[in-house]
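tool=predict chain=A
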Amino acid sequence: MDDRSKHDHSGWEAVVLAARERARSRQALMVERFGLSGDVQYDWSMDDAQITWSRDGKVFLTGRLTVIGSVSVAQQTWLWSWANDSLPHAALGDMERVRQFGEENDYPVLPWPGFTYDPELVAEARMVAASVLDAEGLWAESMDDVQLHFMIHDLALTA
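tool=predict ok
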């Protein structure tokens, strides 16, 4: 893994600032528009890259998941999904575009397979990835000593 978790690329800072604002507004809109607070339950699957939300056992919203990356709490590392061979292909979505965006614009974080865990850098990476792929929202799930980071697309109310 590349251990260059700090960088001073001024273009990166501008991209992060725009992505942060976009993520905040999109996340708030998603929660408000679809009522994703209170007594909402969810179920997700990486195998088919789907997430559903329900109330009282009735599904009311579906969406598509893209795994952005994961944090190993034990190793204190971040690994991009495009560099993780253990993930189902469906869960990768268009993450290769995020890596390419980093290469094309000479942003040091996006094309690295991984880096030493830094909460702020992970937040930046998530938000920029969501911006590049025009995600509707962000989501994370912690299991054992792994944090999985997702973006959400194609939200649809069920009948």
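The chain has one domain: 10-157. Helices lie at 10-34, 95-104, 119-132.
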